[in-house]
Design a protein that fits this description.
Its main location: membrane. By secondary structure, this protein is an all-alpha fold. Helix content is about 70%, strand content about 0%.
């Protein structure tokens, strides 16, 4: 019994720390999808982030209950803790499943959305407006094209443009770069698809593993709470 009480006391602090981690992951996913909303048409992609925030909100009273039970056991508090742990387990399993599914699913969607932005981009070699959605992505991620700078060459040939790339493909340290292909070393080597996909999957996998680890800890906390409940059996409701 004393071991179960000490474990619940430990889990209470873990739950508070996990709440901060879930808030970080949830806000990270929501802001990332908001910043690149022109690439993600479906609003439900941010659902794992909102579920993470809901989990963090419930983790706070769960930690308070756990530390309270570890000091002085109360039947009402023990029952409430069990219900909260069950609710958290459902939320986290849902969030982990969605995060893993969206990480796999969004790769093809990102490629097609970026391809549309490249072909819709209106630029010239002499004067690059540099204010389109694709320019913003390329400057923010320091990338060029969907896979690499050759995507812009395909687009320029279809529009009968001179062979060049937008200035947003230039590396930050090259101030005089104008997207001229005679100085390819001044252009970003990586494509935007891989960089953005890596960022999104890293954020989703962060939520996924947080939920998996937290689910295991909640099961252990439930076992500890069950041990304490056995020492205070409900005699009047044993028939149930």
């Amino acid at each position: 019994r004393s071991f179960a009480q000490s474990r619940l006391r430990f889990f209470s602090f873990v739950f508070w720390g996990a709440a901060a981690a879930q808030v970080f992951g949830g806000v990270w996913v929501i802001l990332m999808l908001k910043n690149y909303r022109y690439l993600f048409q479906e609003s439900y992609l941010s659902l794992p982030g909102w579920l993470a925030l809901a989990t963090a909100l419930i983790l706070l009273p769960t930690g308070v209950l756990a530390i309270s039970i570890s000091v002085k056991s109360s039947r009402n508090q023990q029952g409430s803790l069990m219900y909260l742990l069950l609710l958290l387990l459902c939320l986290e399993i849902s969030s982990a499943a969605l995060a893993h599914f969206y990480c796999v699913r969004t790769a093809s969607q990102l490629e097609s959305a970026m391809g549309v932005l490249v072909h819709q981009h209106n630029w010239t070699c002499s004067q690059d407006p540099g204010n389109s959605a694709m320019d913003v992505i390329q400057r923010k991620l320091q990338c060029c094209g969907v896979h690499n700078y050759t995507d812009w060459l395909k687009a320029s040939s279809s529009w009968n443009h001179q062979a060049c790339v937008p200035e947003s493909c230039c590396k930050e340290k090259h101030f005089h770069c104008r997207g001229d292909l005679s100085h390819v070393e001044q252009l970003s080597e990586e494509g935007c698809l891989k960089k953005l996909e890596d960022q999104l999957c890293f954020a989703m996998l962060y939520i996924f593993w947080c939920c998996i680890v937290l689910s295991i800890l909640e099961i252990l906390a439930g076992i500890s709470n069950g041990i304490l409940m056995r020492h205070q059996p409900f005699h009047e409701l044993r028939i149930l």
